[in-house]
Amino acid sequence: MGFKEWLSHRKYKNQEKEVKKIREEVKHEIEKIEPGSMSALRMEYADMYETENLQDNLILYEAYAGRGMICSPYAIFKCFLNREDFNKYEHIWVLESIEAQKDTINMYEKFENVKFVQRDTLEYCRYLCKAKFLITNLSFPNYYTKKTGQIYINTWHGIPLKTLGFDIPDGRITGLNTIRNFLSVDVFLSPNRFMTECFQHAFRLEGLFEGHIMESGMPRNDNFFHTDRKEIIQKLKASGVEIDPNKKLIMYAPTWKGDKYSAPDTSTELYFKLIDVVEKNIDTSKYQVLVKPHQIVYKHIMEKGEQLTGKFIPATIDANEILSIVDVLISDYSSIYFDYLASGRPILFYIPDLEEYKTQRGLYFGIDKLPGPIAQNFEELGEMVADIPAATSYYKEKYEIEKEWACGHDDGNVCERVIDTVIVKQDFSNMISCDYKSKKKILLYSGGLKPGKTRENLEKLISKLDYEKYDLTLIVPHTENEDIFEWIKNVDSRVRVLRRTGTHSANEEEKVCMEIIAKHGVKDPFYEEYYKQYFPTKVYERELRRIVGQTHFDYAMDYSQKSPYFMNLFSCLKETKIVTKEELESFEADI
Of the candidates 467, 396, 464, 475, which has an alpha carbon nearest to the alpha carbon of residue 438? Predict the structure, then answer.
C-alpha cells in the first residue's frame, strides 16, 4: 500500500486525522517562534546543512565566539595575507558584533576575498555549512554539526596553568560544549608535549578521538617575530588607549576569577588599585602601565555599561600583538605568561588568592615552577616593580627552562607550517593520533538517571566492566537536578562522561514526524507507510554527528530503553553493534 492509499484507506482515517492535527500543532508552535531566535536558527540550520555544498576554497575563522580578529586564528590569517596563494581562498571572519567592529572591518575593505559575518545569524549558519576549513580557538555553538569533508582546526587558546576539562573538580558538569566540539576536530594545534598530553588526558580524547594533533608551536606566538611596533601602538590609540610610544610598557594581564566562566567577577577596583601601586613605585617618565583584562571579563564589563579609562586594552585587540611591545608583564595564573616567555623579557606575578584558587579550580604547576617573583600583596608588588632587575635575577635559569619546554617550537614560522600542512596539502601523516585500537569502544545512553532499579543496574555494569578491554563513553542528560549532578560527578573516573548539551536541529516536517514517533514509537503498523515517506533519518544522523562527531564505536545501547529516540540515534552508527533490550542481559554477561 502506497502513502496516498494509506491516507485514503478507511482503516487509517483516525491516523490521518492525528497526523493532520499534529502538523497543525507543530505549525502553530513554529509560528510562535521569534524570528532570529535560537529555535528559528536551528530550523534554518537543519535545511542549510542538507542543501549547502562545501566550497573547497572557503576558510571560516572564529576567535572567542567572535570577540575579534585575535589569537591564533588571526595569526594564521595574518600569515596568509603575505602569501602568494592568499587570493586562492575566500576568508570569512566571524564577529559577535558587526556594528561595534566597523573600524576593524574597514581595514580590510580593499580585499574582495575577505568577508565578515555576525555570529549566530543565518549568514553565519550558511558559512558553517559551506566552509571547507573551520578555524577556532575555542568551540563553535552547540548547534554546530560537522559535515563530511570539512576540516575543523582547533588552535585552543593557551598553555594551561589552571586545570582543564575533566581535571577540573566539576569538569564533567561544566565542560559541555567544549568536549562535544572536540570530537569533531580534525587537527588540534599543540605548542608542546605538555599541551598534547592535556588534549589526550584532561579532555579524555585518548582512545576515542579520531582526529590528529599537530605539535608544532603556538600560531599566535609568530607575532613576536612579525609585528610592527608602530602599527600596534596606532591600533591601541585608535581604540582609546592612552599609550606613549616613547615610554616602556608594563602590562597587567590577569586571568578571569569567579565561579563560572560565563559569569566572572567583573569588579574593576583591583585593576585601578594595582595601577596606582605600580605607578607610585616606577619612574613614570620612563614607564607606563596598562591593563589587559581577560577576554570574558572585558566582555561582561562592557555589557554592564561600564566605561573603562584609557588604561584598559580592549578585548578586540590581539593580545599577542600587544605582548610584542610589552617590556614587563605582570600576571597571575593566566596562561598568557607562557606566550610571553618567547620574548625573554621579565615576568612578575601578583597572586593574592593562590590558596583559594588552588582549592576551587586546581593548578597543573606549583608556584615553584613560575619563572618570576611572586607578590601576594600590593606592598610586595611595589617592592618588585621598584627594582625589576633585582627582583627577577634569581629566576633567570628557571625562566630559560620553562621557555624551552613551553615555546620550543615557536620560531616565527608556526603559521606557515599549519597552512602548508593542514590547508594546502591536507597531510596528516606525521601528526599524533589518539585513536588507539586496543580497546572495544562502548557508547551508552544513561537514561534520566533518577534513583531506582535502572540506575542501580547501570552502576553494576559500570563497576564490573573490564576497563583494560573496554572504553566506555556515557551520554548523560543535561539536567539541573542536584542528585543527578552528584551521581555524574562521582561515577567511576574511568568512564568518559558526555553531558548532552543543546538539542537536534529539525525542519517543520521532521518535527511532525518526531512528534508522532514520540507518541506511537517506530513499530506501530498503522504508521508504517507514513514512516516510509517521512521518517526523519537525517535528523538522527545530524544529531549523532553533533554529539559524538566523527567517532566510531563497537557497541551502542540505550540503557533506559524507555524511548525510541536514542535507539534511532544509535542506528545511524556505522559498523556498530546496537544492543537491544532483549540482548542487554547476554551483553552484560559477555563483558
Answer: 467
